[in-house]
Amino acid sequence: MVYEEKKSSVYTALISVLVVLWFSNLATGPVHAVPFNGTGGFSLSTTTLDFESFSVGTAQPSNADLSISAELPSAPGVQPSSVFVRSQGFTQIAGIFEGQYYGFDGANYYIQFNGVVQEFGMGIFDPNFAGNVLIAYDAFGNELERVTSDTDPEFPTGIAGGSFSTFVGFSRATADINRIELLSVSNDVLGIDTLTYSSLESTPSVSEPGSAILFLGNLIGLQFIRRRNRPLIKSLRA
Predict the structure, then answer these.
(1) Strand 190-198 to strand 97-105: parallel, antiparallel, or no bridges (unpaired)?
(2) Domain ranges of the chain
């Protein structure tokens, strides 16, 4: 009878700890990213990659902070031969799409950070159709936020003809953006420029609430096993 009461107490304690940590995670955990349009959406100091430092023809530009690649939507892993650093030769929209840029094709674009950032935005050249999607992910592959062209106000579209650009970004409460994907809808041809991001920080290994749950769960589990096997241990010592 005493053993069963102790067993019930351990289970109750474990459930209580998990519930408290779950609600704590809801209260203090990361909130959704806040999408914004325009270069004025940043609240932190930023770094800008405008592709001017790369040679024309570079297929996968990268630096110490990030790497950039593209692939065909119909053939994952295959980079289109037409996607590389290009020279535009004129300024379409100053500070958003000017000089050299990366594209220009119906491709999916990927920006992978060598860490995490709190804010990110970039110029997107000539989205004309609904359905292009810009997505932010954390280091564990969890989607933080997305915006869709011609559906969300942060991702407007222009008329066909190559005369429109927009700047779309995300702002977070903490630095946890590790990857950005721009997925192109069929028939739309996109290019990217003016990649802008806040200070790069180290990638977290495990979130704090997750660490606490694992640690306390193991601690309580070990205590339960120890109490459960106490009669056996005493008999072996006798």
Answers:
(1) antiparallel
(2) 2-27+207-237, 33-198
Closest CA to 117 of 74, 178, 64, 158: 178
Distance, CA of 24 to CA of 154 (rounded, Å): 31
Share the mean pLDDT of the chain. Answer: 83
3-state SS, residue 64: coil
Q: Please say whether the beta carbons of 105 and 59 come within 8 A.
A: no
Q: pLDDT (tens digit, 9 = 90+) per residue, 30-65?
A: 455 799 999 999 999 999 999 999 999 999 999 999
CB 115 within 8 A of CB 66: no
Fold exhibited by the domain 33-198? Jelly Rolls (2.60.120)
Residue 125: Cβ-neighbour burial (10 angstroms; 0-12, 13-18, 19+): buried
Give the whole-angstrom CA distance, residue 108 versus residue 17: 43
- Asked if 196 and 147 touch (Cβ cutoff 8 Å), the reply is no
Tell me the sheet residues that pair with 12: none
Helices 208-228 and 2-28 meet at what angle, rounded to 10?
180
Euclidean distance between CA atoms 84 and 216, whole angstroms: 50
Q: How far apart are CA 157 and CA 189, in angstroms?
A: 12
Helix axes 208-228, 230-237, angle to 10 degrees: 50
Interacting residues of 131 by C-beta distance below 8 A, sequence separation 6+? 148, 149, 150, 151, 185, 186, 188
State pLDDT tens for residues 103-138.
999 999 999 999 999 999 999 999 999 999 999 999
Spatial distance between the Cα atoms of 49 and 190, rounded to a whole number of angstroms? 17
